[in-house]
Amino acid sequence: MKVEFLGSYVKDLPQDNIKEVVFVGRSNVGKSSLINMLVGKPIAKVGKEPGRTRAINVFLLEDYIKLVDVPGYGFAKVSKEERESWKELMERYFTERKNNIKCVFVLIDSKVGPTELDRLMIEWLRHKGINHLAVLTKSDKADQRELSKSLKELKRIGVQKVIITSAKEGRGKKELLKVIMEAKAELS
């Protein structure tokens, strides 16, 4: 699979018409690991501590669609000012790039289930009319009870479709790539 790192952005966002698939979620949910699993190589940096992604990291997949790794929300060992600048960056990104975004993958830890911040993100995306999909990560670390509880909670908040993934085991790769390929088909 051909993938190219285009850059990290904290201010000037790229101005082009290339469609995007965005990975959002709380800090340490596994956004970078999931991107690496999808493309089959370690292109996104994976941190050992929450909050490593501090910019919008953009990758070009197969010359036609961008994979966008954004800073995580929630726990991160950063100052209040830096957290506020991330929030402003995210709001600007979603406002300026709304027409380019084909889908936002909202990543949620399978063991933890949707947090209040995850619920707020889903509600915000609904309010903005941005296409999104819930993705449960780290399913290899969740037992059946935890996984069932997470799915039940997602259903309770109105999420109809969920893709269950494990970057470690490759679970969900085919389903996520199908969503990305559907975005490619819409471009043709």
TrEMBL record:
<keyword id="KW-0132">Cell division</keyword>
<dbReference type="InterPro" id="IPR006073">
    <property type="entry name" value="GTP-bd"/>
</dbReference>
<keyword id="KW-0547">Nucleotide-binding</keyword>
<comment type="function">
    <text>Necessary for normal cell division and for the maintenance of normal septation.</text>
</comment>
<dbReference type="GO" id="GO:0000917">
    <property type="term" value="P:division septum assembly"/>
</dbReference>
<protein>
    <recommendedName>
        <fullName>Probable GTP-binding protein EngB</fullName>
    </recommendedName>
</protein>
<dbReference type="GO" id="GO:0005525">
    <property type="term" value="F:GTP binding"/>
</dbReference>
<keyword id="KW-0460">Magnesium</keyword>
<dbReference type="GO" id="GO:0005829">
    <property type="term" value="C:cytosol"/>
</dbReference>
<dbReference type="InterPro" id="IPR027417">
    <property type="entry name" value="P-loop_NTPase"/>
</dbReference>
<comment type="similarity">
    <text>Belongs to the TRAFAC class TrmE-Era-EngA-EngB-Septin-like GTPase superfamily. EngB GTPase family.</text>
</comment>
<keyword id="KW-0131">Cell cycle</keyword>
<dbReference type="InterPro" id="IPR030393">
    <property type="entry name" value="G_ENGB_dom"/>
</dbReference>
<dbReference type="GO" id="GO:0046872">
    <property type="term" value="F:metal ion binding"/>
</dbReference>
<keyword id="KW-0717">Septation</keyword>
<dbReference type="InterPro" id="IPR005225">
    <property type="entry name" value="Small_GTP-bd"/>
</dbReference>
<dbReference type="Pfam" id="PF01926">
    <property type="entry name" value="MMR_HSR1"/>
</dbReference>
<keyword id="KW-0342">GTP-binding</keyword>
<feature type="domain" description="EngB-type G">
    <location>
        <begin position="17"/>
        <end position="186"/>
    </location>
</feature>
<dbReference type="InterPro" id="IPR019987">
    <property type="entry name" value="GTP-bd_ribosome_bio_YsxC"/>
</dbReference>
<keyword id="KW-0479">Metal-binding</keyword>
